[in-house]
Amino acid sequence: MRETGYQINKEKCIGCQACRTICPQSCIGVTVSRESDRSHCIRCGNCFRVCPVGAAHLPAAPSDPCLALAAENDLESIAFRCISTGEFHFPNQEAAKIAVRTVREFLQRGTSVKRVIWNVFKDVDLEIYRNLFHRTMLT
Q1: DSSP, res 123
Q2: For residue 77, how many C-alpha atoms fall within 13 Å in the half-sphere facing its CB?
Q3: pLDDT exceeds cutoff 50 at 127
Q4: Quick one: which of 115, 40, 129 has its CA closest to 75?
Q5: Is the Cα dihedral 108, 68, 127, 60 positive or negative?
Q6: What is the DSSP secondary structure assignment for residue 40, as one 8-state letter?
Q7: What's the gap between Cα 95 and its chain centre?
Q8: Nearest 10 degrees: CA dihedral of 6, 8, 13, 18?
Q9: pTM strictly above 0.85
Q10: How far apart are CA 130 and CA 125, in angstroms?
Q11: What band does 2 get if pLDDT is binned at 50, 70 and 90?
């Protein structure tokens, strides 16, 4: 079972099944005590957005397999397309925060990868990434 999928805090969960109903991959089991295989989780974020008590959440991904593969092959740069947020209504700001945090943590490991490029398609995403980079450069 992949640990990067959704997680449900069983102590907070009230059993409303809102997360199960909205999951496009049917990852969440019939009861919270019987969670389905999280390996199918696509990290759309629907479960944590509909949870009325904040029991469902997505932990940050530990790393990106593309970054690891780039480092294994001694590449110095890699390009990513902007994370798709449209179909599953994942918040653009949150997607960008996850992407930037994941890349920053990876780059701090001191691999061959020195440059990461994001290809954004919408002006709103460009502004989000610019603001995130500007804020992190000041801290």
Answers
A1: H
A2: 5
A3: yes
A4: 115
A5: negative
A6: G
A7: 6
A8: 20
A9: no
A10: 8
A11: very low
